[in-house]
């Protein structure tokens, strides 16, 4: 099945099974804003716990905060967001659709990559085991021709971004003959900058209300609390501050479901280090973060690092962790070495000293910062994309979400075989015993087969069936989601079996 079709099915599945709903749906929805349903919120909470504990529990020198969404407007002047948090936009005059100029060019680059990958796959099939991919890529004329086109476009694009050259971005779109996917025409407007921050007013207008912004990133809440945390926590450099919270961006293009939203959630960690050591820490955090992703078992080949075409003015190193979504490799997390830019700017704008006295060096300095910044929603999409499977079975087929058990919204479904003979009561007893440890669900409606399919679709890793034998010997059938294997176990064993599979500790051991 084509990847786009899989993606469409996955979006429909998220709605049908209570994971994600379009916001304000009964009013025809609100663009790029989504609500999480009864299972979605559980998965989201589990993802957040995985991240939070991996930062705050596993690192003695990382602590968390929860700062407000509203902040003093000067913060966004100091951080550069008021003047420069822009995306280049372009409109197609025929379809009246709006696009991000940089994304149109990135998609063109991805097309060259896809062409090269297609040649590789074809050759792989032809040559079988003797296939040497590296040699093929270095010598095959069709691959080389596409690589040349890719390299030329890439360097021209990077240059245009670095020079902030909007005319050149438009010229690239024209030269590459990029068409609007809706109208199919090349009738483009000029490229313009568009600020992504949402603004609102605080206080009544009569007194001269203050223009405040909905934060476009959580990071600034950490920077402006650096001194508070360092002093009250008696933190010694190097140390980190972690935060999970909502962020808002008036994104130009709202497509691809929860990949790009106007209201979303970030998990960010700012790590404060001694100047001159930041690039070592950058490498360390790169490694730690990729391990965090890989520990989920979605396949190492589905991750890659992507170096930024353009470094933000404050950064001296930046890399994205990209995951292979059904619509291609895309960013899920950014790791940035932000130098002392933010803290120095806040020193300048607030007039307060934001320094660290380093007793080993016997001097004060503005710390440098390495940040890791990941979107909860993109991580959610990564988990769902990696877990969604359609399987042909002997007699029928099933849709199953093979979510890692530790992240699964419901861990255990308990099902009485029939609704009588004391089986429902026995099933409830099992739940009452386990519900303090795991999210359990009671299910007695429809045939057992149908109930299994329902739990597969939700992604429940374990189903326990209570039958007549249970009332005699206190054993049940436990059925495993991924293999569909079943075994007879004592009720007293269930907690242990599940406990081992859903423990965060197992994941943490791999980080
Ligand atoms: P992009 O290039 O895709 O717009 P970005 O580079 O602007 O993303 P950052 O500012 O580095 O993103 O934000 C850190 C993380 O926050 C991203 O890696 C992503 O996971 C998440 N994120 C950013 N913007 C959005 C959005 N509009 N919707 C959902 N998640 C987002």
What this model shows, in words?
With 511 residues, the chain is α+β, with helices and mostly antiparallel strands. It has three domains: 1-71 and 196-392, Bira Bifunctional Protein, Domain 2 (BirA Bifunctional Protein, domain 2); 86-194, 2-Layer Sandwich (Herpes Virus-1); 395-508, 3-Layer(aba) Sandwich (Rossmann fold). 40% of the residues lie in helices and 25% in strands. The strands form seven sheets. It has a seven-stranded mixed sheet. A five-stranded mixed sheet has the order 20-19-21-22-23, with helices on both faces. Helix 5 (101-127) packs antiparallel against helix 7 (141-162). The chain is globular and about 75 Å long. The mean pLDDT is 95. Bound molecules: adenosine-5'-triphosphate. Adenosine-5'-triphosphate binds next to strand 10, strand 13, strand 16 and helix 13.
């Amino acid at each position: 099945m084509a990847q786009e079709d899989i993606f469409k099915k996955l979006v429909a599945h998220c709605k049908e099974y209570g994971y994600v709903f379009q916001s304000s749906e009964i009013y025809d929805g609100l663009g790029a804003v989504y609500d999480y349903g009864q299972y979605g919120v559980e998965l989201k909470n589990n993802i957040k716990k995985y991240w939070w504990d991996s930062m705050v529990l596993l690192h003695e020198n990382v602590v968390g905060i929860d700062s407000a969404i509203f902040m003093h407007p000067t913060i966004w002047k100091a951080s550069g967001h008021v003047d420069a948090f822009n995306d280049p936009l372009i409109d197609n005059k025929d379809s009246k659709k709006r696009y991000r100029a940089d994304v149109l060019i990135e998609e063109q680059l991805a097309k060259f990559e896809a062409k090269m990958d297609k040649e590789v796959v074809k050759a792989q099939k032809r040559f079988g085991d003797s296939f040497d991919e590296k040699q093929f890529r270095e010598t095959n004329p069709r691959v080389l021709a596409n690589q040349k086109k890719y390299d030329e476009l890439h360097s021209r694009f990077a240059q245009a971004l670095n020079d902030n050259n909007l005319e050149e971005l438009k010229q690239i779109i024209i030269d590459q003959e990029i068409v609007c996917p809706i109208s199919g025409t090349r009738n483009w407007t000029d490229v313009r900058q568009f600020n992504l921050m949402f603004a609102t007013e605080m206080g009544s207008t009569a007194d001269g209300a203050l223009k405040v912004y909905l934060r476009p990133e959580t990071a600034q809440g950490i920077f402006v609390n650096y001194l508070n945390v360092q002093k009250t926590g008696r933190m010694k450099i190097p140390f980190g501050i972690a935060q999970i919270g909502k962020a808002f961006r008036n994104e130009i293009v709202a497509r691809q479901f929860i990949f790009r939203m106007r209201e979303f959630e970030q998990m960010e960690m700012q790590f404060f280090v001694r100047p001159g050591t930041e690039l070592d820490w950058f490498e360390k955090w790169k490694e730690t973060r990729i391990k965090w992703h890989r520990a989920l078992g979605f396949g190492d080949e589905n991750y890659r690092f992507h170096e930024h075409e353009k470094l933000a003015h404050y950064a001296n190193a930046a890399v994205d962790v990209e995951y292979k979504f059904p619509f291609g490799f895309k960013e899920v997390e950014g790791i940035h070495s932000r130098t002392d830019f933010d803290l120095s700017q806040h020193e300048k704008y607030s007039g307060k000293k934001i320094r660290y006295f380093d007793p080993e060096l016997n001097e004060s300095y503005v710390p440098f910062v390495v940040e890791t910044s990941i979107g909860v929603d993109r991580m959610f999409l990564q988990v769902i994309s990696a877990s969604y499977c359609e399987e042909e079975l002997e007699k029928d087929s099933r849709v199953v979400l093979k979510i890692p058990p530790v992240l699964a919204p419901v861990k255990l479904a308990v099902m009485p075989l029939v609704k009588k003979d004391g089986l429902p009561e026995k099933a409830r007893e099992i739940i009452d015993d386990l519900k303090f440890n795991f999210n359990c669900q009671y299910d007695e409606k429809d045939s057992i087969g149908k109930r299994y399919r329902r739990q597969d679709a939700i992604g429940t890793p374990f189903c326990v069936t209570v039958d007549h034998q249970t009332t005699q010997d206190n054993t049940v059938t436990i059925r495993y989601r991924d293999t569909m294997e079943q075994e007879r176990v004592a009720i007293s064993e269930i907690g242990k079996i599940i406990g081992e599979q859903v423990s965060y500790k197992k994941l943490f051991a791999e980080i």
